[in-house]
Amino acid sequence: MKKHWIILITIIVVLLAFGAFMLYKTYFLPDSRTRKVIAFIRNPNANADMMIPAQSRCGDAPFAIPTSGMIGFIWDDSFRPGHRHQGIDIFGGTDVGETPVYAAYDGYLTRMPDWKSSLIIRIPSDPLQPDQQIWTYYTHLADSDGNSLIVDDFPPGTMEVYVPAGTLLGYQGNYSGTPGNPTGVHLHFSIVRDDGNGKFLNELEINNTLDPSPYFGLALNARENKEAVPLCERP
């Protein structure tokens, strides 16, 4: 019985130590992306060199940047043990409803009837794998109470409306899904796999999403890019 208690206490100590290390690594290391995001949000004007303008392209990448701001968190970043980020977060450094969001690539837009802050765009032919269909997902386009910031052209229930790249979709917001419990003002963007039957998979699972790096021509995979804020190469 005593041996069992020793094992249990050892496991708890190891888990606490791992949690403390992850907290330190995420929030306190000088070069952590989280620290850079916090610094940008507090003073975007002083960190303007971290911003990428909306609708710009990096090299010959097929996708345009969907909104202006700092790409703070990237694909497979982890904010806590067990969490894997499914896309990228772009922080505009502005108030709710001020920073426009545009379609990154041509496709067919759907907004499900109960979606307050989200849109998804079907791309019938993936520009990198033309025999595959993919979907691009945009969310947090509402204020903290769930008042939508999506443009009136795409009301709830919109299905399969063609939108070319550069179409105005809405504005960055801070809706978390829970009214009155806001996130930071940003756009969350992800590339979602098709289920093989013409439907999108659940975006909340990272294995249902694609690494956005080759689509934007940026280092957007946290496995390779541990700390840096992704930026287009400057001439």
Name its key features.
eight-stranded antiparallel β-sheet; two-stranded antiparallel sheet; 3 helices; alpha+beta; single chain; globular; Glucose Permease (Domain IIA); 17% helix; 235 residues
Overview of this protein structure:
This protein is of the alpha+beta class and 235 residues long. It has one domain: Distorted Sandwich (Glucose Permease (Domain IIA)). Helix content is 17%, strand content 18%. It has helices at 2-27, 33-42, 213-216; strands spanning 51-52, 69-73, 88-91, 100-102, 107-110, 119-123, 134-139, 161-163, 168-171, 187-193. Strands 1-2-3-10-7-6-5-8 form an 8-stranded antiparallel beta sheet, with helices on one face. A two-stranded antiparallel ribbon has the order 4-9. A hairpin with an 8-residue loop joins strand 5 and strand 6. The model is unreliable at 13-30 (pLDDT under 50).
Number of domains: 1
Sheet with the most strands: spatial strand order: 1-2-3-10-7-6-5-8
Mean pLDDT: 88
Range of strand content: 15-25%
How would the global form be characterised? globular
* Overall helicity: 10-25%
Q: Which superfamily, in CATH terms, is the homologous superfamily?
A: Glucose Permease (Domain IIA)
Structural class: alpha+beta
Main beta sheet: 8 strands, antiparallel
**Record field, number of beta strands:** 10
Low-confidence stretches are 13-30
User: Architecture, according to CATH?
Assistant: Distorted Sandwich
Q: What fold name goes in the CATH topology slot? A: Glucose Permease (Domain IIA)
* The first-level CATH class name: Mainly Beta
Distance between the termini: 67 Å
SSE order, one letter for each helix or strand: HHEEEEEEEEEEH
Whole-angstrom Rg: 19 Å
